[in-house]
């Protein structure tokens, strides 16, 4: 009798310490929605990290690119998805933090469950390789002196728009012609096709074109110099008090089980401390930057506060 009781107690104790996978999650592939075209920093980081998580989860992360509406189409799909842990959004603050302020979107970043920040990307101010501009100051002075002449390509009401607004605020007002283009790839194509004169993009997306000479970098828009381009000064170093750090972040639909989120968060943490993941990201000019859900929430709130300030100043609040 005593032996039987001990076996029951041992079985109960073991049940409390078995891996979370025993609960059955994940039992199938997890869809990772990247709301931008393939080839941008969001897409690159999602694919690299997802690939390096295949030994950490029993099921793969499968990237789906759902572009459109300045990133809102993909975000909407995740917002409407079943909160079962099998659909997540790979996003950065400039989209979900901005959407509820400047569009009629019925959701914001606070309507999702934070999972993790995974990587940080540099933001580059770029022009065509044959542009007359050699510095950020030259470009901004020319744009200020010639309202409507120079063409700045961006995604209206998305991060590239608000990066522009932040720069414009810092230099006393810029009035270029806006050329709409969604995602890093879209803006790069616009410059290469001579349809625009200047833009900001994720540095990881533009490196091949800088190396070929087709495009030129004037400044980094990050808070500090990039380890991948240490000779390129930041905007702040050029006297422009504006900066933006791409925080590649993962969200789940509201109501996703906390147990599922914890499993994903832990897997991201492990992947981002793995030297092979770190090296793979660095090869693509991306910085491993793990933050847990609480830290992620605080960083996103700070970004949202900045965007709200810029939206109010520019009459963009809907």
Automatic annotation (TrEMBL):
<dbReference type="Pfam" id="PF03401">
    <property type="entry name" value="TctC"/>
</dbReference>
<comment type="similarity">
    <text>Belongs to the UPF0065 (bug) family.</text>
</comment>
<feature type="signal peptide">
    <location>
        <begin position="1"/>
        <end position="22"/>
    </location>
</feature>
<dbReference type="InterPro" id="IPR005064">
    <property type="entry name" value="BUG"/>
</dbReference>
<protein>
    <recommendedName>
        <fullName>Extra-cytoplasmic solute receptor</fullName>
    </recommendedName>
</protein>
<keyword id="KW-0732">Signal</keyword>
<dbReference type="InterPro" id="IPR042100">
    <property type="entry name" value="Bug_dom1"/>
</dbReference>
């Amino acid at each position: 009798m005593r032996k039987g009781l001990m076996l029951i107690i041992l079985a109960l104790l073991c049940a409390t310490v078995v891996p979370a996978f025993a609960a059955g999650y994940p039992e199938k592939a997890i869809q990772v929605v990247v709301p931008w075209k393939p080839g941008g920093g969001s897409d690159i980081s999602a694919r690299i990290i997802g690939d390096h998580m295949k030994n950490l989860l029993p099921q793969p992360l499968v990237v789906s690119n759902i572009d459109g509406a300045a990133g809102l189409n993909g975000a909407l799909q995740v917002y409407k998805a079943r909160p079962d842990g099998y659909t997540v959004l790979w996003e950065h603050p400039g989209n979900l933090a901005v959407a509820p302020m400047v569009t009629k979107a019925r959701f914001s970043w606070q309507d999702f469950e934070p999972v993790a920040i995974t990587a940080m990307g540099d933001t580059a101010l770029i022009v065509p390789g044959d542009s007359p501009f050699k510095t950020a100051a030259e470009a901004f002075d020319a744009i200020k002196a010639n309202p409507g002449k120079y063409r700045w390509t961006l995604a209206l009401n998305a991060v590239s728009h608000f990066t522009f607004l932040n720069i414009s605020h810092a230099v006393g007002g810029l009035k270029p012609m806006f050329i709409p283009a969604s995602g890093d790839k879209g803006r790069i194509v616009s410059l290469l096709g001579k349809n625009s004169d200047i833009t900001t993009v994720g540095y990881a997306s533009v490196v091949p074109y800088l190396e070929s000479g087709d495009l030129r970098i004037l400044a980094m828009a990050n808070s500090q110099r990039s380890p991948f381009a240490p000779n390129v000064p930041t905007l702040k170093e050029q006297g422009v008090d504006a900066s933006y750090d791409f925080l590649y972040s993962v969200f789940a639909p509201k109501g996703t089980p906390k147990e599922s989120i914890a499993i994903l968060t832990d897997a991201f943490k492990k992947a981002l401390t793995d030297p092979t993941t770190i090296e793979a990201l660095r090869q693509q000019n991306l910085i491993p930057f793990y933050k847990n859900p609480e830290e992620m929430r605080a960083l996103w709130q700070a970004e949202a506060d900045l965007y709200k300030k810029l939206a109010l100043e520019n009459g963009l609040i809907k």
